[in-house]
Design brief:
The protein is α+β, with helices and mostly antiparallel strands and 240 residues long. Helices cover 32% and strands 25% of the residues. It contains six helices and eleven strands. A six-stranded antiparallel β-sheet has the order 6-3-8-1-11-10. The chain has a three-stranded antiparallel β-sheet with strand order 5-4-7. A two-stranded antiparallel ribbon has the order 2-9. Strand 4 and strand 5 form a beta hairpin. It is globular, with a radius of gyration of 20 Å.
Amino acid sequence: MTAFPGGTSVSRLSVYTGACADGLEGGTPHLHTASTEAYVVTGGRGALHTLDLNGLRETELTPGTTVWFTPGTIHRAVNRGGLEVVVVMQNAGLPEAGDAVMTFPPEVVSDPAAYQEAATLPEGEEEAAVARRRDLAVEGYLRLAASVRAGDPGPLLRFYDSAVALVRPRVAGWRRIWESTVAAETRGTDETLAALGRGDGGHLRRAALLEAPAQERWGMCGHLRAHDVTRPVIPPPAHP
């Protein structure tokens, strides 16, 4: 097996600065439809704002904080000064293939063409487009949060329905990714345990060191140094 442990992915995140309409600095509110996400805070300070059918929650983020949130949890990273995070994502490949849905207003998120237009970062205009889509997602998020505070889960439930409709055409492709990564890792562990149970350590002879160099890109929550763990490289031998 050559996948990152557990079929997960890892990236380093510098959370965006610049104030939104409500005066907070940080990332674009969104959810994941199939994958759990984890934050391991490595520097700075901030907060994680989350919204689900249980209500709103604010979790302080300081170095050492480790939190994770399941599919359907709308999350917004708030930067209060130099917030740096290591992000671990379940199901490597799925988040990169459209698993995330941003909290654009209902008239946008219910229209696949309008959603695609709002989510796209045109080449050469990435920084301005990141700000535009963040502001639009914050607008939708604030409306969802106000409804939940008022005891009305209807808008959030409708947002969930729209999110499912948006990603449904991608699911067959996601399944192929999952079968070749996470499921393959699980089958590999099963085979390893069976071999060890027989006293067979043949897999130890195939030991290898793998590496995934960082790739800089614009993320939803901040500047990403993402590691493509689906295509690792094997460093050349070197003597210490």
